[in-house]
Amino acid sequence: NATGGAVNLTTRGPTLGEQEGYISGDFGNFGKIQVDGAINIPIGDTFATRISALSIDRDGFMSDDTMDDDHWALRAQTLWEPTDRVSLRAQAQYADFGGRGLGGFTYAGASDPWESIFPGGNDVILANVFGNGFAFPDFAFPWVTDALNLGPAPSPPFPPNTNFISGVRLIGDTATQDMQTWDISATLEVDFDFGTLTVVPSYQEIESFFLNTPGPQFQIGDPFTGEPETSEATVFEARLANSTERFDWVAGLFLFDEDQYGPTRVNQGPVQTIFVENRFENEGFGVFAESTYSF
User: Fold this and answer.
1) What is the pTM of this model?
2) Burial 69-98 (b: 16+ CB within 10 A, else e)
3) Is 111 exposed, middle or buried (0-12, 13-18, 19+ CB in 10 A)?
4) Scanning 43, 129, 152, 205, which has its CA 20 to 30 A from the CA of 94?
């Protein structure tokens, strides 16, 4: 249901009978290097393939190099039109996301708004329900093997609604992300005298492992086995539609099936440590029909 409308983004597909391509580069601050390109190769009069690729490498905005961008992607598509009434388009794509990933910052008396809450060695700012700064006593956190370096708390008065504990330092460099996703899909269109049949099957897999410290430690993925969060989804849609000068109609069916494993840990040391292991199996089925007559 899209009461306000919808935006449909369609990947540029192969073109029959035309060989063309492009390559583009983009360079910017924070060491940004982006390269992307594509090539379209026709094979005969009824078949074509298109291959496109993208690579982005950029340092993080934060002082500890989090909020960076390190990913690449590859897509291959084919188009086959044996007749004027039959069209088959298939595609496969893969993407890989790495780097440090998400970071965070909060008010800690620093003049630099982009100074991370983990400058250099991951300084962690923890919530203080008393609204008054103080430093933790010297004890070991479960996720830290090195000794803590405790610094003095900032001096009041603090701005309104500023609650933090300052001075706890986690030794090490923990923030990281590692995600891969791939999918295959196809679109078959067959034109009949009474309407157009469209069949769209697809399959997608996602694996992700994230470790971020603003929680002070939030982790997606099993911390004991190293198993990532996974999602396997199958989608199938078939519809028959036709449009005339006064009468438009469409009818079809939709199938969805997903298996998801989502291990998540939130480690707040002496406050709480939570590990949740979620397994979901989602199935959906629907039929739809719509018609419009214009007077």
Assistant:
1) 0.74
2) bbbbbebbbbbbbeeeeebbbbbebebebb
3) exposed
4) 43
